[in-house]
Write a structure and sequence with these properties.
- The chain has helices spanning 31-36, 42-63, 69-78, 89-100, 123-145, 147-150; strands at residues 64-66, 112-114.
- By secondary structure, the chain is mostly helical.
- It has a domain at 53-144.
- It has a two-stranded antiparallel ribbon.
- Helix 2 packs across helix 5 (123-145) and helix 3 (69-78) runs parallel beside helix 4.
- It is globular.
- The mean pLDDT is 90.
């Protein structure tokens, strides 16, 4: 991964602070990462971002083809969806689906194509599928590396 700006991956759908989830429904950070983000050093922030990228990219790459990063970035800006231009475009697309899947009817104007094996699903269904797969991976990571957090209620 290239040098990454470590700005927050928050997309404004925080469930860790609002409902007490252990994993944020929006950005998929763990609750402690959301709460302590501003106290983290650059290396800690980078580690969190790299983990999220490693989890998001394969899921997105299986379902979508990003034909134009320029069109995707422009579309995100038009839709006022936050994204980190230093992260892989798959993470940008994840943000778009998470924030706007109910309002979108197509992805062509964003320079994105749905892969043939997934075209039978609506964008809302695809977004839900991506989200559920990502949540499973995040929960597995949390359980394996932070068992003390994963066993807490919430």
């Amino acid at each position: 991964m290239k040098s990454v700006s470590t700005k927050t991956p928050c997309i404004g759908i925080c469930s860790t602070t609002s409902v007490g989830d252990k994993i944020c429904r929006g950005c998929k950070r763990f609750s402690a990462e959301v709460i302590d983000w501003n106290a983290y050093g650059e290396n800690e922030k980078r580690a969190v971002l790299e983990r999220l990228c490693r989890l998001i990219e394969p899921i997105m790459d299986t379902r979508f083809i990003i034909r134009s990063q320029i069109e995707l970035a422009a579309g995100l800006k038009r839709q006022a969806v936050p994204f980190n231009e230093d992260l892989p475009p798959a993470t940008w697309l994840h943000n778009l689906l998470k924030k706007r899947h109910r309002a979108l009817t197509e992805l062509g104007s964003f320079g994105v194509e749905v892969r043939p094996g997934w075209q039978h699903l609506t964008l809302a269904e695809l977004a839900e599928d991506v989200d559920s797969q990502l949540l499973v991976l995040c929960e597995a990571h949390l359980t394996r590396y932070f068992p003390e957090i994963s066993q807490l209620d919430g």
